[in-house]
Write a structure and sequence with these properties.
Blueprint: E1 18-20, E2 26-29, H1 35-42, E3 47-48, H2 59-65, H3 72-75, E4 82-88, E5 94-98, H4 103-108, E6 118-125, E7 127-128, E8 133-141, H5 154-167, E9 172-181, E10 186-196, E11 205-210, H6 224-231, E12 237-243, H7 246-252, E13 261-270, H8 273-293, H9 296-302, E14 307-313, H10 315-318, E15 324-333, H11 339-359, E16 363-364, H12 384-397, H13 402-405
Antiparallel strand pairs: 1-2, 2-6, 3-7, 4-5, 4-6, 8-10, 8-12, 9-10, 9-14, 11-12, 13-15, 13-16, 14-15
The structure holds flavin-adenine dinucleotide.
Flavin-adenine dinucleotide binds near residues 2, 60, 256, 407 and 409.
């Protein structure tokens, strides 16, 4: 957990509880774990939990800040799946917050981050699954066609994404990354998808898709929702697999390689086709500025990981209200001497995008805490009524502000 100069470091790395309940309906998880540990433990039991989309994301921060998984449309946010928190409070007592006891604290910890105590275990709902899912990862060139001046495939890719969000299918998930990969000629749309095998009818198998030959005969196995995506516009490359959903998180790991510097900026927008167009358009229009400022070797090493990621937040995920989508501008780089360039570029790209969306009435003030940058105020996007309630609960559990003054870093509820 966060440290302070002249303070102590509270390391939770040894709290690695992993206990599936006898009835397999819930699992007790320690805060010292990463999602890969949890998925591996659950593999033989045909149950799954709502966790990170790559394996090396920490369990506690993900759950205390929200938690967006591939299967949010089916099971909601990670925090919605916490049945009980065991928490050490500011007065050093240990309590269990759940629907029957400390209900206010139970509510506040779901998005309240480190403002209420140190969570020493999470009881999570374990969802029964058949152990199989159709998972795919496709890359499309979105480079500009010199003849038409338009981006290849971009319109179709965005149409398909919008259709996916509109469909609000509760057995599927999608994560589109729009990147600039110099080795592959620049702009690339990288789409990862999953469809759960809810009826137990999928046959295990795997295949790769080679764009220049079009979809292979194996594509017959592709669920209809994703078939359109691959048939109309054959990807440059792609692979699919009928396998455990955990496999998709493993396949995503290379998109977040170790050893790089990385920084996120996040905003929310109404999930419309126009928003998608604006967000991707501004991102790609701003890339030449980076190409000018960075030396060739840095561009080759890092730009492939610089992306705008669209996180569809479907109606099913919110269970009510208007559709929203989040987008994250991610910059990844290697050499610390480019910190300033990369941070300035991200700040400006993020500001320009939010402004442009605002002018069209498409922006939304929600800032997803887990992907927010240090200079973004995650609590500013919470509703007034919710903030009032959070403050009242904090007054009750931490009147002396131990967690605010003693546990610096992270997002703190303002006074
Ligand atoms: C490559 C990458 C991929 C990601 N993918 C996803 C994704 O798919 N979905 C998603 O929703 N998010 C994703 N994230 C964001 C991720 O959820 C956050 O970074 C999250 O904070 C990680 O959890 P952590 O435990 O490592 O957090 P930390 O950085 O350790 O902590 C975050 C905050 O929580 C507090 N905290 C930590 N442990 C406790 C505890 N036990 N009790 C009380 N407070 C505590 C800390 O003090 C800090 O304020 C991703 C991030 C990265 C870098």
């Amino acid at each position: 957990m966060s440290t302070i100069t002249d303070g102590v470091l509270v390391a939770l790395t040894k709290l690695k509880t992993l206990e599936l309940a006898e009835d397999k309906k819930s699992v007790l998880v320690g805060p010292g774990l990463q999602w890969g540990d949890v998925y591996r433990y659950l593999l033989p039991h045909n149950v799954f939990v709502v966790g990170g989309r790559i394996t090396n994301i920490g369990v506690p921060g993900f759950l205390l800040g929200g938690g967006i998984s591939y299967l949010g449309s089916r099971w909601g946010f990670g925090m919605d799946n916490v049945e009980e928190f065991e928490v050490v409070l500011a007065d050093s007592s240990v309590v269990r917050a759940n629907k029957r006891s400390h209900l206010d604290l139970f509510w506040a910890l779901k998005g309240g981050s480190s403002n209420f105590g140190i969570v020493t275990s999470f009881r999570l709902t374990a969802h029964p699954i058949t152990g199989k899912a159709w998972i795919g990862k496709f890359a499309y060139s979105t480079a500009t066609d010199p003849d038409t001046g338009k981006r290849n495939h971009m319109e179709t890719v965005l149409d398909k994404l919008q259709a996916f969000v509109d469909k609000n299918d509760d057995t599927s998930g999608v994560l589109p990354l729009f990147m600039y990969v110099p080795q592959h000629g620049g702009p690339i749309g990288d789409i990862s998808v999953i469809k759960l095998d809810v009826e137990g009818k999928m046959e295990m198998g795997a295949g790769s898709i080679q764009g220049e030959y079009g979809p292979t005969p194996d594509m017959i196995h592709v669920p209809k929702l994703f078939k359109d995506m691959t048939e109309e516009i054959p990807p440059m490359m792609g692979a699919w697999n009928i396998s455990h959903p955990y496999q998709l998180t493993l396949a995503m790991n290379p998109d977040a390689p170790d050893g790089f510097r990385q920084s996120f900026r996040v905003h929310a927008a109404k999930a419309t086709r126009e928003s998608l167009e604006l967000i991707t358009h501004i991102f790609y229009n701003r890339i030449p500025e980076l190409l000018e400022k960075l030396p060739a070797e840095e561009i080759l090493q890092t730009l492939g990981q610089t992306s705008v990621i669209i996180q569809p937040i479907t109606k099913n995920m919110l269970k009510q209200g208007e559709k929203r989508g989040g987008y994250i501008i991610t910059v990844t780089w290697f050499d610390p001497k480019y910190d300033e360039i990369m941070n300035e570029w991200s700040d400006l790209t993020s500001e320009l995008t939010y402004e442009a969306l605002g002018k069209k009435g498409l922006s939304h003030p929600f800032i997803y805490m887990n992907d927010a940058h240090g200079n973004q105020d995650a609590f500013a996007g919470y509703g007034q009524r919710e903030m009032k309630r959070l403050k009242k609960i904090r007054e009750q559990y931490d009147p002396k502000r131990l967690w605010k003054k003693g546990l610096v870093g992270g997002y703190k509820i303002p006074e």
